[in-house]
Amino acid sequence: MSRIQRILVTGGAGFLGSHLCERLIEQQHDVICLDNFFTSQKVNVAHLLAQPNFELIRHDITQPIFLEVDEIYNLACPAAPGHYQYNPIKTMKTSMLGAIHTLGLAKRCRAKVLQASTSEIYGDPEVHPQTESYRGCVNPIGPRACYDEGKRAAETLFMDYERCHGMNVRIVRIFNTYGPRMHPYDGRVVSNFIRQALAGEPITLFGDGSQTRSFCYRDDLVEGILRMMNGPDDFRGPVNLGNPGEFTIRQLAELIIAMTGSKSEIVLRPLPDDDPVRRQPDISLARKQLDWQPQTSLEAGLEKTIAWFRGIHLEDYRAPTPNY
Ligand code: NAD
Ligand code: UDP
C-alpha cells in the first residue's frame, strides 16, 4: 500500500480535528475534512484550503456519505456540555448514526477507522484513577446522558462491526483537552476562565471548585490519536488518552488568574447536575502499547493557550449556543 493515504476526518474543522488535519497534511496525506460547522467555524481550517492535498466538505454525519478513503478518524460530535445539551436528541443521533455511517463507509472501503470516545463513558466514576477495564457509572436519564450514552453506544457499534465484519477499528477515550482554537464561547472550563480573566469579568466557578479534572494539551493528545491509528493491528483499544496531572477546578481558576495577571474575582455558581466529582486517566496502557505520554505541563500549555486567546478578536466568533 502507498505510504500516502486518503484520510477522512469527520468533525475536522473543530478544535481537535483541525489540528489533526494539519498533522496529516504535513505528512503528505490526502485529507478530506468533513464538518457541519455546528460548533466550529471555517476559520479553523481556512489556512489549509490552499493546500492541494486538503478538501473541505460541509456535511452532517447523521446522513450517509459516499467517499473513497483508506482511513477515517471519527471526531464529529459536539464535545462541550453546553453544546451537546443544547439539542440532546441531535447529539445522540450524531454519535450513533455518525458511528453507523462512518463504520458503513469504512466497511465498504475496507478502511481503518478510529473513534474519538471520551472519559465521559466512565460517568461520575467510583474508581480512581480510571482504567480502561472500569465500566463506568453513567446516569442514563440525566442531562449528560445524550453524550455519555451516545459515545458508549458508538463504542459498542465499533466493537460489533469488528466482531461481525472483521474490521480494523480503534477506540481512544479522550480526557479533558485544551489549547489554541478552542471555541471561545464553548462554555468549557479552560476557555471560559481564560476569556473571563482576559476581559476582567468574574470567573464562574461551579460548585465549590473542589471537583477535579486532568487537562491534556492538544498537541500531546493529537500525537496520541495518530499513534493509535498507526499502532499495531492487534491493539484496538479502548485506550485512555489524557494527562494524569489532576487539579481542582479552583486551582485552575487561581492559576489562570495568576498567569493572566487578571483582576477578576471568583464567583460561585451552582454545580450542574451529574457533574463528575473526580477525573484522572490511568495511562499505563497507552504508555505500554503506544509508547505515549503527555509532554506538556499545565502551565506550559496554558501559556500557549492564553497567548492565542490574547491574539483573537472575539467579535469574529459566533456563539454556537447560548450555553457559555
Ligand atoms: P469541537 O466541538 O471543536 O469539534 C467537534 C466538531 O464536530 C465540530 O467542528 C462540529 O462542528 C462537528 N460536528 C458536530 N456535529 C456534527 C455532525 N452531526 N456532522 C458533522 N460534523 C459535526 O470539539 P473537540 O474538542 O474538537 O472534540 C472532537 C472530538 O473529540 C469529539 O468527538 C469529542 O467528543 C471528542 N472528545 C474531546 C474532548 C476534549 O476535551 N476536547 C474530550 C473527550 C472527547
Ligand atoms: N466549570 C466551572 N466553570 C465554568 C465551566 C465549567 O467551574 O465556567 C466546571 C464544571 O462544572 C466541571 C469542570 O469545570 O466541573 C469541567 O467542565 P467542562 O465543561 O470543561 O468539562 P467536563 O469535564 O465537565 O465535560
Question: Top keywords for this entry?
Answer:
324 residues; globular; two-stranded parallel sheet; alpha/beta; binds nicotinamide-adenine-dinucleotide; Rossmann fold; binds uridine-5'-diphosphate; single chain
Tell me the fraction of residues in β-strands, as a range: 15-25%
CATH-assigned homologous superfamily of the domain at 6-177 and 218-244 and 280-296: NAD(P)-binding Rossmann-like Domain
Structural category is: alpha/beta
How far apart the termini lie comes to 46 Å
Report on this structure.
There is one protein chain. The chain is an alpha/beta fold and 324 residues long. The chain binds nicotinamide-adenine-dinucleotide and uridine-5'-diphosphate.
Task: State the gist of this model.
The chain is α/β, with parallel strands linked by helices and 324 residues long. The protein has helices at residues 15-26, 81-84, 88-109, 145-165, 189-199, 218-230, 249-260, 284-290, 298-311, and strands at 6-10, 30-35, 54-58, 71-74, 112-118, 169-174, 177-178, 203-206, 212-214, 216-217, 239-241, 246-248, 266-269. The chain has a domain at 6-177 and 218-244 and 280-296: Rossmann fold (3-Layer(aba) Sandwich), CATH 3.40.50.720.
